[in-house]
Amino acid sequence: MIMHYSVNRIPVGVLGASGYAGRELCALIAQHPRFSLAFATANEQRGQTVRLGRQDVTFTATDDAPLGNVGLVFAALPHGASLPWVERARRAGARVVDLSSDLRPGNAADLLGAIYGMPELGAETRAAIKIAEIVANPGCYPTSILLALKPLVDAGLVAPGATIVANSASGVSGAGNSPKRELLFAEVADDYRAYGVGNSHRHLKEMTATIVTLGGDAELVFTPHLLPVARGILSTITVPLVAPLADALEPFRDAYANEPFIEVVSEQPTLSDVVRRNVVRMTATMIAGLRAPTLLVTSAIDNLVKGAAGQALQNANIMFDIDEALGLPA
Ligand SMILES: NC(=O)c1ccc[n+]([C@@H]2O[C@H](COP(=O)([O-])OP(=O)(O)OC[C@H]3O[C@@H](n4cnc5c(N)ncnc54)[C@H](OP(=O)(O)O)[C@@H]3O)[C@@H](O)[C@H]2O)c1
Question: How far apart are CA 61 and CA 47, in angstroms?
Fold first, then answer.
């Protein structure tokens, strides 16, 4: 593996680098002007060398990671496995961006004082990320749904006590790259199905806790679907409003006018608009013919970029006072 410890670059390490999120991170770090990849770990894939972002990366065993030699550790490990490694990295003196759900709101956010790393929640969030020792990187589905809801909650437009219905379709990389029979090509190709139905998906807690933090008084019905594509998430979100909107896009344009990674558009976003980009692309439309005023918000992201590695690197930029957009595919 190429070990970079150059003077102008901050050495960072990736735990779980052989997974989909970890590989994406290594590729982004390889092209980042201010970070250099000091180590990349794997479990079963340890010892393998792969080409990521025009750099050869050899995966070392997690136990061999020199956690104390880097300024930042990205933990891209499965939920449950991540928390002990976050604690070890902190004991070694490194700051951490954890991509798992272990330290997100609604999970164990209070345990280690982790800051929820969704920069577009606003200036206070960005200020907290900047000085954070641990950032809990948001989940992919929550990124596509919460950023679509925030302008409406902030503006007091969501009907009090409303039930918001979010249906999301995700590409198969959302499930990681460890072999699973139900994710074989023949099982998913030319098919489409819901899973985690009845509000049983792990991301629900993160979303409901964050809606409460934003000051919202709404329930959420969240149904994920498995889409037979490699990457991307498209969410359609039905939101009961206090009153009809003459211009459905206005709250979104107002809220995100200065956000480099949020695109508010008048046409329906598609996965091909966002794949391999660190953006959330969204639109909104008043639903015709209903008794109560109701808005449909559609949002699209790449689950591995804005939904994982890109957002993690965006947080790292903020933590080290680097231009937030540096090294990110806009
Ligand atoms: N995939 C997404 O779209 C996405 C989006 C947002 C957040 N996330 C989160 O990011 C994390 C990684 O997701 P992923 O999709 O990249 O998963 P993945 O492809 O299954 O990768 C998991 C990584 O962790 C390693 N690993 C597994 N068990 C381990 C253990 N007990 N000790 C040390 N290393 C271990 C794996 O190594 P080997 O493969 O070598 O065994 C691999 O490098 C998860 O917490 C996930 O929820 C994923």
Answer: 8
Tell me the CA–centroid distance for residue 262 and ligand 1, in Å. 26
The average pLDDT across 276-285 equals: 98
The CATH code belonging to domain 140-302 is 3.30.360.10
User: What is the dotted CATH code of the domain comprising 10-138+307-319?
Assistant: 3.40.50.720
Atom of ligand 1 nearest to the CA of 78: 45
> Which residues does a 6 A CB cutoff place in the pocket of ligand 1?
16-22, 42-45, 62, 76-79, 81-82, 99-101, 139-140, 173-174, 176-178, 303-304, 307-308
* Cβ atoms 104, 315 nearer than 8 A: no
> Which residue's C-alpha comes closest to atom 17 of ligand 1?
176
Give CA 251 to chain center in angstroms.
23
What one-character-per-residue DSSP string does 104-120 give? STTTTTTTTTPEE--GG
Q: Which of 65, 70, 140, 275 is catalytic?
A: 140
Looking at residue 2, what is its pLDDT? 47
Q: Roughly what angle, to the nearest 10 degrees, separates helices 310-319 and 123-130?
A: 70
- Catalytic (active site) residue 26: no
Residue nearest to atom 31 of ligand 1 (CA): 81
pLDDT in tens, 234-264: 999 999 999 999 999 999 999 999 999 999 9
pLDDT digits (tens, 9 = 90+) for 155-188: 999 999 999 999 999 999 999 999 999 999 999 9
Distance CA 311, CA 186 (A): 32
**The model's pTM:** 0.97
Q: Residue whose CA is closest, atom 25 of ligand 1?
A: 16
The pLDDT value given to residue 290:
97
C-beta of residue 295 within 8 angstroms of C-beta of residue 239: yes
* CA–centroid distance, residue 18 to ligand 1 (Å): 8
CA distance 280 to 46: 33
Spell out the domain ranges in the chain: 10-138+307-319, 140-302
Q: Atom 9, ligand 1: which residue's CA is nearest? A: 100
